[in-house]
Design brief:
The structure is a homodimer of 293-residue chains.
Chain A (H helix, E strand, L loop, with lengths): L14 E5 L2 E8 L7 E4 L11 H7 L5 E4 L15 H15 L4 E6 L1 H12 L4 E7 L15 H7 L7 H8 L4 H14 L12 H14 L17 E6 L8 H9 L3 E6 L6 H4 L1 H13 L8
Parallel strand pairs in A: 3-4, 3-5, 5-6, 6-7, 7-8
Antiparallel strand pairs in A: 1-2, 2-4
Helix pairs in contact in A: 1-10, 2-3, 5-6
């Protein structure tokens, strides 16, 4: 347990844990009766990419643990080029912390890692929240070269967080305004920030997406083995990992509730953070064996 | 306003309202700060088909008004063979009550009528809950002759509510157990019951479904005109009106949240009544212009 406690991802100090052969950066804060909630991050995202409006609200009912995987930010090592390889780092980290069970919020890439971990060691998670993600064998996962994304990623006028506002939010006035507010919240942390990810991180993570799109045997059949209560969340206009992937998840996972948000893209949890954190807290506080909450 | 108040659809007396050229049976009970919630019923269902576990819980925060359309139960008149015709009866009833605005829960057939009303007179509804229903132009709406339904509907050993348990719930032990509990709850009302629907009701309503499957112009384009905050709900294994219809609704309605339930069919709101009523109450209590709650 950390001796340093803070209620916000804007101010909480980054900690470091040596486990297996790596040193992992992480942040841990909040308190309450719930199991700790592990946050697994999106493509190229670091600890600084977690919206305090989401983390801080959830941290009022339980500890939250934001994890920086190998090769990102100040964590040592190399970014694996498979989801399975990434899952190994999370296991090493949790084993190093001495946590035998927790809840998990996996966003995008992080949701794939959470599924892999739930398959390999079911007891590691009690309840899972999968946001803007896809099952193995899913489609159109992070194809950054498609026109709807490339027009922003290739725009030299857009730099840093401005790109996020475009690609995480829908092209409507209301969604872009929510995106601007999200960027402002991310920018509040001014000290003890993580280095941003470079091309090597992107390249390895994109290779993992391409591998995750492949499947053998009956498509999505392996999802029946993930029997945890699961909350699946997706923005209805997600261009990065389209909502069809969440339809497949909730139809093939035996115990999953699906929640979709209107007028939003990949960052729906940040756009509707008040709703999302209320729904997530209600889901996490339930001890039913059924997902509905 | 009724002078008779009761907290349960198991015991509340049926009332009658003369409006336009008909006498409509209805039940009205509950109280609280919310707008009244109008319940629009499913194929062949009468007032007695509303699960008290749903109505009574929702009635703790607002009045609920259960409506019996023309030609059903003790309401006079003839069942229309179009959704538009059915909407006219609801308008006549609400005008007769003097209600200029309310919330609505439209289940299955009732959800189609609610959409039609929201198109014709947007001010009639503040917020809408659409459960197990389909947009105009939807697919596979109540095709009772398909094998997955016909095997139960044509089984002479299944009579009355036993059929409902089979066709409203998924073929799993847990869902069928929830179905048995639902049937037991419906059976608690022993006095002042409505006559069950006969073949003429079914025939007219099925004609309305066939008409609702037709569309002109761009498919689902008219949904953009329904700008109310909407909560769309569907069981993931709904054989009567498959979940694809709710995917279309939530993708084409500009301001709709989708919630799907696992391990459940058409009657997901009854199977997971504790979750459904909690979600519905949270949605209805919101006064945001956005659907997320």
């Amino acid at each position: 347990m950390s001796s340093e406690q803070s209620a916000s991802n804007t101010t909480v100090p980054t900690q470091f844990l040596q486990a297996s052969n790596e040193t992992y950066a992480y942040r841990r804060f909040g308190s309450g009766p719930g199991l700790p909630l592990l946050f697994l991050q999106h493509f190229t995202g670091t600890l600084d990419n977690w919206d305090p409006a989401v983390t801080d609200s959830i941290a009022t009912g339980r500890e939250v643990i934001l994890f920086e995987s190998a090769g990102l930010g100040r964590s040592t090592g190399k970014v694996p080029d498979t989801i399975t390889g990434m899952a190994k780092h999370v296991f090493a980290f949790l084993d190093g912390l001495g946590l035998t069970s927790c809840d998990v919020l996996g966003f995008s890439l992080g949701g794939m890692i959470a599924q892999q971990m739930g398959q390999e060691r079911p007891s590691i998670f009690r309840r899972m929240i999968l946001v803007g993600t896809a099952p193995r064998g899913g489609e159109d996962i992070m194809h950054l070269d498609k026109p709807s994304l490339a027009k922003y990623l290739g725009d030299p006028k857009l730099q840093g967080y401005s790109v996020l506002q475009k690609i995480f939010f829908a092209p409507t006035e209301s969604s872009q305004a929510a995106g601007a507010a999200f960027i402002e919240r991310l920018s509040r942390r001014t000290q003890d920030r993580e280095p941003a990810s470079g091309p090597a991180v992107a390249q390895a993570q994109l290779a993992a997406f391409r591998d995750w799109e492949k499947f053998t045997g009956q498509r999505f059949a392996d999802l029946k083995n993930i029997q945890h209560p699961i909350l699946v969340v997706n923005g209805i206009h997600d261009e990065m990992i389209p909502v069809q992937n969440s339809y497949w998840l909730s139809a093939s996972l035996p115990n999953a509730v699906l929640l979709t948000y209107p007028d939003s893209g990949h960052g729906s949890l940040f756009q509707f953070h008040e709703s999302f954190t209320r729904q997530a807290a209600a889901f996490l506080v339930s001890d039913s064996k059924f997902a509905p909450y």
